[in-house]
Amino acid sequence: MDNEDLENYVAQEGQIVHYLAALKDKYKIPHIESGAIFRDNIQNGTELGSKAKAYIDRGDLVPDEITIPMILDRLKQADCKNGWLLDGFPRNRNQAVKLDESLQAAGMALDIVVEIVLDRDIAKKRIMGRRLCVKDNNHPNNIFIDAIKPDGNSCRVCGADLKTRSDDQDEDAINKRHEIYYDTTVGTLAAAYYFRDIAAAGGSVKYLTLNGEPGVKEVTAELLAKLK
Fold it and tell me: Are 89 and 99 in contact (CB under 8 A)?
């Protein structure tokens, strides 16, 4: 399982992209996506990128000792001086601990962690229910979301034919990825809860939870309201 695949599935049917875009536009801060950091370092031939590529070429996961310095290097760039949105990392509790320690050592602060709460079965249905318009993939269609439910096999926006992505229909693959995401002991939710516990103990980080069941517009509005 590579980094990009995991991000595709934990993104709750792509809606997180919309939330990040709203924050990026409102606060004028960059969206820092972990997969893009890997690609940029490899393409630019950086020392860390070369080390990461060696692991990737062997089919191994890139160790945190390489990944976290890459992320810190990116967060230190000029466009991040007023803040940043970190997406796709940490993926497990151990990475959360190491990231927290590395940020503190670098004199950097993580201000807010956002958890979008969504029932696992609903998350899977949203992935498997996604339908792509053959004319425009940006036309939202999903057979399990009433607000954007298509008209049979026709796009609800333009009437064109719809298709599915093969990976959207791979239930075993989705379950495997969700086993990682919904794991509250060592997985991705455990990483989030690490910061939740820091916030509960009076730490400097603020932990926000949002109900992910409503539509994108409603969740985005709630997110922006809670950040005021």
Answer: yes
